[in-house]
Structures are given as C-alpha cells and as structure tokens.
Amino acid sequence: MTVRAAVAGASGYAGGELLRLLLAHPQVEIGTLTGHSNAGQKLGALQPHLPPLADRVLAPTTAEELTGHDVVFLALPHGQSAAVAEQLGPDVLVIDMGADFRLANSTDWEKFYGSPHAGTWPYGLPELPGARAALEGSKRVAVPGCFPTAVSLALFPAYENGLAEPEAVIVAASGTSGAGKALKPHLLGSEVMGNVTPYGVGGGHRHTPEMIQNLSPLAGGRISVSFTPTLVPMPRGILATCSAPAKPGVSAESVRAAYEKAFADEPFVHLLPEGRWPSTASVQGSNAVQIQVAYDEAAQRIIAISAIDNLTKGTAGGAVQSMNIALGLPEDTGLSTIGVAP
Ligand SMILES: NC(=O)C1=CN([C@@H]2O[C@H](COP(=O)(O)OP(=O)(O)OC[C@H]3O[C@@H](n4cnc5c(N)ncnc54)[C@H](OP(=O)(O)O)[C@@H]3O)[C@@H](O)[C@H]2O)C=CC1
Ligand SMILES: CC(=O)N[C@@H](CCC(=O)OP(=O)(O)O)C(=O)O
C-alpha cells in the first residue's frame, strides 16, 4: 500500500520534522507541501536538512491545494486547522498537529485558547489506555501537545493502578524548538544561551487542561495539576519531572511493578533499569520515550521522570505513529527508537 500525504505548514519546525520522518516511511509518497508567508519559496531554502525535497515549491495553505491526498497533516498554528479541515472530505485521513481538536471541554478551550471550540477528535497518544482502539480506522486524529505527551506517559501508570493521590506537581524543561520557528524576542540567542527560565507559572499554561483530561479518567475523578514549564538552552528535548503523593500502602515494589506492566509491550516507551535516569540527549531525533520511576518513602511521593524529543514523539513521530494505526499499518513503520549521540 502506498499513501499519498500532504503537509500543511511544511516550512515550520513540526512540518520539517514530519517530512524527515515521512522521507523514511516505506509506504508514504510525499505530495503537496504548503506554507504561509513562505508560499512560493523552495523548501531547500527553509529546511536545508531535507535535500530530497529541496526543489519542492511551497503552495499556499488552502483546502484546494490539499485535496487529492490520502492523508493530510496540518502543522499550523493553533486555531488555523479547523477551517482547513472542515473543507477536506470525510474519506481523507486528517492529522492535526496543532491543538484545535485536542480538548473535549469547550469551556477549557475558550479559557486557554481564547477562541470558539472547533470540536474533539480521537487523541493521538496510543499508549494511553483505550487510545489505540479509538485511533484504529479513524479519519481524524488530534496529535497531543509535547508536554502532555511527556507528562501523561510518565504518570498514567500511577493513576491507572490507584497508586497516587489526585494532585500532580510537574516541572518540565523544554528546548526552544517547542516554541516554533517564528521570530520571538525571548527566543533570541542572546536571551536563551546560558539561561534557564520558567514561564506560564501558576496554572496559566494551555497544556494543563490537556494533562488533566488525560489523567483524570484513570484517577477515577478530576485531578489537579500544578505545571511549571522551563525553557532551557537546547534546540530539542523535554525532561518532565512529575510527582504526586502516594496512596497509603504503596511501596517501591508496587510502583515498579505497575510501571513494568504498563510499558512491557510498548514499542516506543522504555522504562529504564532501576538506577538509570532519562536524558533528552538519548532520545534526540528518535520516537523513543525514556521513563524512570521512584518511590520517595520519606516524602511519601511517587516521582516519575520522562524524556522525549518534543519534535519527534512530542509531535511528528506521534503523528506518524497515529497515522500508522489509523491506516492499519504496523505501528512502528518508518519510526525509530535509535537516537543521535553525543
Ligand atoms: N514545535 C513543537 O515542539 C510542537 C509543535 N506543535 C504544534 O505544531 C504546530 C506547528 O508548530 P511549529 O512547527 O512549532 O511552528 P512554526 O512556527 O515553526 O511553523 C508554523 C507553520 O505554520 C505556518 N503558518 C503560520 N501562520 C499561518 C497561518 N495564519 N495560516 C496558515 N499557516 C500558517 C508557517 O508558514 P510560514 O513559515 O510559511 O509562514 C509554518 O509552516 C503548532 O500548532 C504547534 O503547536 C505540537 C507539538 C510540539
Ligand atoms: C518551549 C515552548 O514554548 N513550548 C510550547 C509548547 C509546544 C507544544 O507542544 O505545542 P502545542 O503548541 O502544539 O500545544 C509552549 O510552552 O507553548
């Protein structure tokens, strides 16, 4: 089977990473590529790491340009996907890498994104309990945010197994590509280099409701999430340190056993041997997730730490993994857990 795939937002970071993965996918033929301010430009000038596509010229991002494909990936800013998606036919597989269709609760959407809610699509984090079944055969997929990917994978075994109280505290470091390629003063080299700084502190980050949405059903009721992201001077990677109070009777052994069971058959999630800790460098450019979990007996807290590449498992790799499931292909087709080191 060969599927023809279009990529909207091909000039951006998420679009560029997606194209890197699609070039290595044995069942994908790359069709139309679109941009916005860069429409009319050759891709080689914008994504110089993709020589096989260097002479492709970006079309404008319109539904007309994107029709005639089996799969359309939308790697557009928040709020831009819905208008395009509604013009694509019901038989086309549309994979939105933005946030437009991630949240089920309209009030949360309006509060955190400040625009009308477009709807809710099956959620592209296959490792979450029940998620694979919803993706199989689906014609619409909402790819998760990068922080919710890292955090949900780190914490769901604790909630699914009734080990943690419903009060999670998360501090996560992200590389700057998470903020996209558009020019922003806080992303200038002179601001970022040699600097680590938090942002979105105190419940203001739009990924908080997405984490609550993912974890609450497993906790048997609404959980609270205190989330503090920090921007660190590296291009890629997320390290999420997540903790929650342990329920009475929890032990280091019961925590370890729950995490071993949760990830035993997962192709991309690696629970590290005890004593080894996740690192962003180890997952760079790969679709792997590294996880370690510990029980802090003195503080009576479960600490789960995950590392992902925000552009791979955190966006484009998750999108390809979800596409594979939706099309009935082996889930790992075209995806690797092999990183780049040092
Ligand atoms: N970066 C990351 O780690 C992650 C990103 N995502 C999501 O992926 C999507 C793309 O992010 P990212 O690649 O980082 O962002 P970039 O800023 O790097 O790229 C944005 C892309 O969208 C295009 N674009 C900009 N404005 C418009 C518009 N008004 N209408 C149509 N197209 C437009 C740009 O085209 P041009 O350059 O030609 O103007 C560019 O191709 C976002 O929704 C983001 O939230 C999700 C998870 C992680
Ligand atoms: C470092 C950085 O700025 N990261 C982004 C998250 C990027 C991401 O996952 O994406 P969505 O925008 O698709 O939700 C942020 O915190 O806003």
Commentary on this structure:
With 342 residues, the protein is α/β, with parallel strands linked by helices. It has two domains: 3-144 and 313-327, NAD(P)-binding Rossmann-like Domain (Rossmann fold); 147-310, 2-Layer Sandwich (Dihydrodipicolinate Reductase, domain 2), CATH 3.30.360. 28% of the residues lie in helices and 21% in strands. The protein is built from eleven helices and 13 strands. It has helices spanning 13-23, 43-46, 63-66, 81-85, 106-113, 131-135, 146-160, 189-192, 208-219, 252-263, 312-327, and strands spanning 3-8, 28-35, 59-60, 71-74, 93-96, 140-142, 167-174, 197-198, 224-231, 238-245, 269-271, 289-296, 301-308. The strands form two sheets. Strands 8-9-7-10-13-12-11 form a seven-stranded mixed β-sheet. A six-stranded parallel β-sheet has the order 3-2-1-4-5-6, covered by helices on one side. Strand 12 and strand 13 (301-308) form a beta hairpin. Helix 1 packs across helix 11 and helix 7 (146-160) packs parallel to helix 9 (208-219). The longest helix has 16 residues, at 312-327. The structure holds NADPH dihydro-nicotinamide-adenine-dinucleotide phosphate (NDP) and N-acetyl-L-glutamyl 5-phosphate. Residues 98-99, 145-147, 174, 178-179, 229, 231 line the site of N-acetyl-L-glutamyl 5-phosphate.
